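User: Please work through this fold.
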Amino acid sequence: MMQSLLKGVFLAGALVSGVLVAAETPRVLGHRGNFQYDDNALGGFRQSLEVGVTGFELDVHMTQDGGMVVMHDSAVSTTTTATSGMIESMTLDAVTNLVLKRSGEHVPSLQQVVDLFGSRADLFVEFEMKAEGSHTGEALKQYVDNTYAIVAG
């Protein structure tokens, strides 16, 4: 049952510095949440947690004003009802006010996702930081610093 709810499922240890480290028990990981929701939607993460998923891979982008959002593609038209636009050229408020195509939810900020996950010690999360050509030098350092501040917060 749980496997049918997940878009991507695998049982494995953790890859640490290029070395596979065996987990004490296998983990069920959700790739971008749950297939019944848009990729990286809060509802998909929430439902996956409810059925026992103990890990996720999710995608993080930095907005023009330094905000952090969780969305797979930088082109907002891929998963939202917007017809055009790139995350990197939009503000945090503009992106988080966009509506996801399938679920009708708004694009989540990284802070919203981290708040949903809480301080669960049993949860493994891979934050895949997406960077387009506009993220160079100081902007890329800010991107990493902003993500770390939210996740470690």
In short: Strands lie at 14-16, 19-21, 29-31, 55-62, 68-70, 124-129. Helices lie at 2-5, 42-50, 92-96, 110-117, 138-152.
